[in-house]
């Protein structure tokens, strides 16, 4: 999925769970995301907050390699001139 194909506006849904990975690299934060994915049922929405710029690459790859649907990735300037990313995933177990 290219950056242009990724929606950048939050969907109008209430998240079922939020994982705050701000300040963590995607590699260390992905374990927390995997645990959350296991705990959520089909149709649930997971929000992942991150400061790692790889979020725009890693989470679309996660969605492509699984049955989960990437709903959007928002990005905005946070504190100390760093960007913050908010990823929305709709959960679908095979």
TrEMBL record:
Question: Which Pfam families does its entry note?
Answer: TusA
Q: Which InterPro entries match?
A: TusA-like (IPR001455), TusA-like_sf (IPR036868)
> Residue limits of the UPF0033 domain?
17-78
Region listing for Disordered, in residue ranges: 1-22
| Signal peptide feature range | none
By what name is this protein known? Sulfurtransferase TusA family protein
Q: What is the lineage of its organism?
A: Archaea, Methanobacteriati, Methanobacteriota, Stenosarchaea group, Halobacteria
